[in-house]
Amino acid sequence: MKDALHVALSSGVRASLSDILDPSDGERLERFAAHLPTVREGIVEIPLGPARAGAGPDFHLMPHSERDRARLIGGLRQFPSDCDTDRADAMVLARLIESWPSDAGLVCEYDVDAGASLRLPSLFLNFPRAWAAADHVAAQDLLFRLLPGWEECRPGIDALPAAAGSDARVSWIGVMLPRRPRFLRVNLAFVGAGQLRSILDGRLPPDRVATACDALGWALDAADRAVLAVDLSAEGLGGDIGLECFNDGDAGRTGFLEAALRRGLIREREARAVCSWPGCTTPASRAAAPWPDAWIVDDLLGDGRLPSCRRTINHLKVTAKASGQVTLKAYLRFHLDWTLVEGGASPVVRPTGAAAGFLAAARA
Q1: For the chain, first and last CA: distance in Å?
Q2: CB within 8 A of 268, min separation 6: which ones?
Q3: Beta bridge partners of residue 331, listed in sequence order
């Protein structure tokens, strides 16, 4: 995964991201990525504005194939730790990845510590919109069968979309075993401004509800879509209330960042740097790092299309913390893809020709 991160950062964006990432952060991220399983899609989670103080970037892996899942499972089963609790948690996470339905997504979130040492990930499990109600029930049955002792959280999960009404639904559940105290993070999709208070009322103190609604209301107005993120344990909701905000186009995202800028959640140079992230790197990109040899070998197994490393802004997250602080983070996504020739047709290239072309372009 170190190669993927290196190529993603190399195509003319490393300099602009220096306005967000300190040099030590970038180096630590790449050192950490070198310990991770080889998965070709990921997200760099970066705190912005005042939230940067004392907080570094985190890293997300997004497996999309059985081979990707197998690599993650293998890494967890061989997780290096002298702690019995860590080893037991690693086995739980491995079983969840192994058992989770293949038509549903997974995300492993790694907190990158100052020493860039490998820590257990939190695991996010997707509940696709296309699933029927029975599929959601079966998936929760599986989750709580593999998470003994957490069944008491289930009524709280089921009550959230009921409180929101309309089209709100549970879209992801994060198993946050490495965090202390432990909790489940429940993501609720299709949440509007009028629903936020209905969800929080009765679950948090009235003054906390008012503070959270005031802090997040502008983000609900500025986003095209929003996903509410709440932390749930046997004791109820945690104090931090997050809002993952998605915008479909550049204009909407710019408007969102301008609104955040007015509220002091992001610096102007950081907003410019976030907007500069999207792009595409190929073996022919002159600004790119040399195309990794391992990728060239893998790409020869395809049908000759040109591989590319695409960068997109996945979302921006606003969090109203229990302390009263409001924070903003950027989730910058990159993934290996295939670039088609103009017109949508895929060029037909013999493997030997593809190898020569890739090598020549990458080392020109």
Answers
A1: 24
A2: 261
A3: 45, 315
Euclidean distance between CA atoms 122 and 102, whole angstroms: 19
DSSP string over 151-219 = GGGHHHHHHHHHHH-TT-EEEEEEEETTSSS-EEEEEEES--HHHHHHHHBTTB-HHHHHHHHHHHHHH
Answer yes or no: are the C-beta atoms of 86 and 62 closer than 8 Å. no
Q: Which two tokens stand for residue 179?
A: 């965090």
| CA dihedral (83, 123, 64, 32) positive or negative | negative
**How far is residue 171's CA from residue 227's CA, in Å, rounded to a whole number?**
9
Tokens 């948090």 found at: 204
CA–CA separation, 196 and 232 (whole Å): 16
- Short-list 328, 329, 343, CA closest to 59: 329
Residue 42 DSSP one-character state:
E
Q: What's the Cα-to-Cα distance from 227 to each of 145, 167, 341, rounded to whole Å?
A: 26, 12, 35
C-alpha closest to that of 360 among 34, 154, 352, 47: 352
pLDDT in tens, 162-209: 998 778 899 999 999 988 889 999 999 988 877 899 999 999 999 999
User: What is the predicted pLDDT for the residue at 299?
Assistant: 59
The residue type found at 19 is: D
| Residue type for position 336 | L
Longest Cα separation, the chain: 67
CB 34 within 8 A of CB 116: no
The pLDDT tens digits for 246-276 are 999 899 999 999 999 999 999 999 999 999 8
Question: Cα(104)–Cα(129) distance, rounded to whole angstroms?
Answer: 10
